[in-house]
Amino acid sequence: MITVKALMQPHRIVMMLLFAALIIWCAFSLRWDWIPQYAPLALQGLWTTIWLLVVTTVLGFLFAVPLGLAQAIGPWYLATPARVFCTIIRGTPLLLQIWLLYYGLGSLFPQFPWIRSSELWPYLRQAWPYAVLALTLSFAGYEGEVMRGAFSSVAKGQLEAAKSFGMPRFTMFRRIWLPQAVRNVLPTLGGETILQLKATPLVATITVVEIYAVSSRVRSDTFIVYEPLLLLALVYMVLAGLIALAFRRFEGV
Length: 253
Hints:
Order of helices and strands: HHHHHHHHHHHH
Number of helices: 12
Radius of gyration: 23 Å
Number of strands: 0
Oligomer: single chain
């Protein structure tokens, strides 16, 4: 925790004064009259960004746990596909993955009449399912490798002791192995979550309207360049700070 004495150090005071001067200059020298007009759309885009972040990180982590477990202790017929999946995801750009799913997989579905006549077709015609799938698989690919190391780092003696007491394998996994692995990986998980937040603007390339897409629309409609980008940077910094603060609280529990 930063104390008042630490904040009063000369270099911190200079930095705070410079930051305050920058805020005052931006407030009075730049144009902000466009905000009321685009505020409803910006709030909707912010909600989409947060929704994408929460859903894809939760689903991705749930997928990463079996991926990491398969690589850590699984037989070769489970470990090899998991390792290949993580290698492909980590070795290819996320933008390429989004385009392959949206323009590739999305263009295949209309060729099957039974898909077009199904209840899923109204959703498969939209862009957001492919964005969710791409971001989820990307997060799972990175976190699957992280969880592999986390599972391997748990002391084997604890697992052997649980076995000697007759604890069922699933109970041992739920009470001993998984909690310790997650605790070991929390700092990395926090960083990956922030990276996931900064990856969400890529879905704007397939027409998903999140907060970055809103700023692009403001620029194209009003030809105001710097103000939307500065406000967008502030939004991402606030969200990233909240994520970092939340994970620090979790690490301290």
